[in-house]
Amino acid sequence: MSRGWLNALAEHPLLKGRVRIVGLVDLDPATAQARAAEFGLLDAAIGADLDEMLARTKPDLLFDVVVPGARADVVATGLRHGCHVLSEKPMAASIEQGRAMIAQAAAAGRVHAIVQNRRFIAGVRRIRRLLEEGALGRLTALHCDFFVGAHFGGFREDMDHVLLLDMAIHTLDAARFMSGRAPRAVYCLETNPAGSWYRHGAAANAIFEFEDDIVFNYRGSWAAEGANTSWESAWRLVGTRGTLLWDGADTFQARIVAGDTGFFRDLEDIEVPAPADADQTHGHASVIADFLAAIESGRPPETASNDNIKSLAMVFAAIESARTGRRVSIAV
Fold first, then answer.
1. Do 81 and 303 touch, CB atoms closer than 8 A?
2. Residues 139/179, Cβ–Cβ less than 8 Å
3. d(Cα 14, Cα 288) in Å, to the nearest integer?
4. Any idea where the GFO/IDH/MocA-like oxidoreductase domain is (predicted)?
5. What CA–CA distances, in Å, run from 315 to 59, 170, 271, 294?
6. pLDDT in tens, 49-99
7. Model pTM score
8. What fold does the segment set 122-275+310-329 form as a domain?
9. 322 to 164, 204, 210, 232: CA distances (angstroms)
10. So what's the pLDDT on residue 92?
11. Residue 259 needs a FRET pair 20 to 30 A away by CA distance; which of 25, 69, 230, 250 works?
């Protein structure tokens, strides 16, 4: 994951020259040394002890690119040293940990935000603008299919709730962003399909209730071979005037009702508008740029932890519903 962050920092026009890396920390210093060599970070300090590294280099920012189980300690350490912290997703390994991070950031007077890079892509931004403009009428439902046969190896294949916790957070956050509505409750069935190469929870079906009677239906699997969707999923958004289809890549189809007679009403195609701000469509680079701009201006970043916890709450409510077999209310 650190390669993606460092690529964005080194190469993207939004970021090039804005951040100087002063240290790299890994439990295995040889791994950090190899990454430093890969990116020509010849002056960066290398170490295995984050506390010592922050005391020695005194940076303004900490980029937290660790496995979810290590996040709470890393964020607390960074804030204690006066760093603004940008974390990989998911924000925390529990809602309680997430709340603690929010409180720690507030007490330290520092910004803590999350890399929800998949809301910073053109397709998601275009849909948000279309819905804000009211082209589909009042939004009533979002439907999302995510089916990918992903063979990562490593820590993911041994995680509990791997799809919901490590991947669905992207999709659930995108649904919350696109709709502009808060989640209220969920019913979820989580499974680990026959033939899965994951230890636990490679598939899930969840029905979320959002504000204003909007329903979000999520179907996903990380152990589905043969017909991969986009990493951004395949979407159907239904409004009172029409429907938008998005394949998660470059193909959109949006139609609204154009007549008031007939068993099936006449339809007309409508254009899906360009993003309101093209600078917000570059994934990791856009998230990091928004984080830096927030620090410089004093405004909250779009993915500040005190907002992102609402997406995390969707994940843990879905997990609780799967565990109990019951509808679970979502509250932060």
1. no
2. yes
3. 9
4. 124-244
5. 32, 10, 33, 26
6. 999 999 999 999 999 999 888 999 999 999 999 999 999 999 998 999 999
7. 0.93
8. Dihydrodipicolinate Reductase; domain 2 (3.30.360)
9. 11, 9, 18, 23
10. 93
11. 250
